[in-house]
Amino acid sequence: MIGSLRGRIAAKTPPQLLVDVGGVGYELEAPMSTFLHLPAIGQEVSLLTHLVVREDAQMLYGFASQDERRLFRNLLKVSGIGPKIALALLSGISVEAFAQCILKEDVAALIRVPGIGRKTAERLLVEMRDRVAHLEGVTGTGRSDEASPESEALGALVGLGYKPVEAARLLQGIETGVHTTEELIRRALQGAARD
């Protein structure tokens, strides 16, 4: 199994990503939360991966953090959840926010994620209840010790009705530096108003 990749980004078109590792191009799919942390095309990147083998294809998924990959793998164990829905969940909600939804049994927040209906959300609540406690960084209260401002801003923009791809594009347009979640959201919305 391929556990991680380190190479140069050859192309990125959310959710697809092409990473050149020693002359071999690896096609991956990654959640929007990972895309927010990617360097520019031509720069070096290191990603954790998960390989899904089916009868007709082998798909490689890339993640910026161990928590994202761990949640992705746990989501695949839920009946009726495949890689596309798991990727949509990670694109529409942070690991910390997902854990809070499960711990608080917040069906409404899960339904706001594109591609998740009421039945799927209820199934997630039941089947992920025991697994969510094993996600790193999540305490018994469902709060993360270190939720990144970028992932919180992404979740907020998706909550405001932006598609995950649009929200990530708005956040990528913001110059790098230390920003609070509120400042990232404000600047993203200002960028959207200019477009």
Which structural traits does this protein have?
OB fold (Dihydrolipoamide Acetyltransferase, E2P), 9 helices, 195 residues, five-stranded antiparallel β-sheet, DNA polymerase, domain 1
Describe the 3D structure.
By secondary structure, the chain is of the alpha+beta class. 44% of the residues lie in helices and 19% in strands. It contains nine helices and five strands. It has a five-stranded antiparallel beta sheet with strand order 3-2-1-4-5, with helices on one face. α7 packs across α9. The chain is globular, with a radius of gyration of 16 Å. It starts with a strand and ends with a helix. 33% of the residues are buried.
Secondary-structure topology with pairs:
Layout lengths: L3 E10 L2 E6 L2 E6 L2 H4 L8 E10 L4 E6 L2 H11 L6 H10 L2 H10 L2 H5 L6 H11 L20 H11 L4 H9 L8 H14 L1
Antiparallel strand pairs: 1-2, 1-4, 2-3, 4-5
Helix pairs in contact: 2-3, 7-8, 7-9
